[in-house]
Amino acid sequence: MQTKLLGFNPQDLSTAGKLIRDGQLVAFPTETVYGLGANALDVAAVRSTYVAKGRPSDNPLIVHVWHGDQIYDIASYVSPLAQKVIDNLMPGSVTIVLPKKPIIDDCITAGLDTVAIRMPKSQQARDFLRYADVPVTAPSANTSSRPSPTTWQRVQEDMDGKIAAILCGDNCRVGIESTVLDLTEQPRILRPGVVTADMLEDVLGCHVEVITDPKSKVNSPGVRYKHYAPNVPMALELNGDVRKLCDYYDELTSKGLNPVLLVEHPDLFGERNTRPIGETDEAVAQNLFENLRLLEKQYDYIIASYSSRTEFAESILNRLVRSASHHII
User: For position 259, which CATH number holds?
Assistant: First the structure.
């Protein structure tokens, strides 16, 4: 299969929309990461997503819409709390989990009676979804377990020859996946993101629980399996301890390895290989997956350090810990 590279002009958007309606896969940008789109009403198309990604089929998918009215075609019940999120935070980087209608097949929800729904903030994403004119499932457009792509070039690395087209849009501004909020009972964050618990509590006027036990996240996309891992080993340090980082780096070089330090203050590490992780939480998130994909091509071990403890930083740490396969030094 030859993967087409499409732009954001009416002709190419029309082509991308028709490909979706014809059961093909099209990658497209959102403000969080690039998604791998399929017609949510076409079971064969949805199942082909799992094949292209090498993703287990018992991992739910998020259904993307361009307009709020589509939510009521998908969800069997929209609670007053869910309506508050829709009215105040959508379009945005938040996914809501609601009871599903029969129109949504079990292959999307991994057999669950709930569906995850998102209306992206990205105008490019919503333009594509409008041209598709159907709800679109879209996990991140990468090979399963790899760092999520935040540029169309990274999508091409993983998906060239496997999917019909890539919409070559903007680099992703947020850089990590959406917050997943379960609203089937009391509000629970199943996957953290840029929309934090404090932000949700301000909108909802009630407590929002943040679930940290993986066994409690069975109805959330993107939390069940190994995620975000570069192709080289990775370790994570959480306090910005320069001495510890230097010692670990030097130990690796003594074994003949060529490591790199992905750190907050590269100037503190002398002649060692370094790359800045970012000066703000927003910069760290925006560049995290791109940094991992870049460094895996140049070095054979990544040592990351991140000491921020803001609420948004906890969402970033969620990705870093999993990228390092929970290897904390």
Answer: 3.40.50.11030
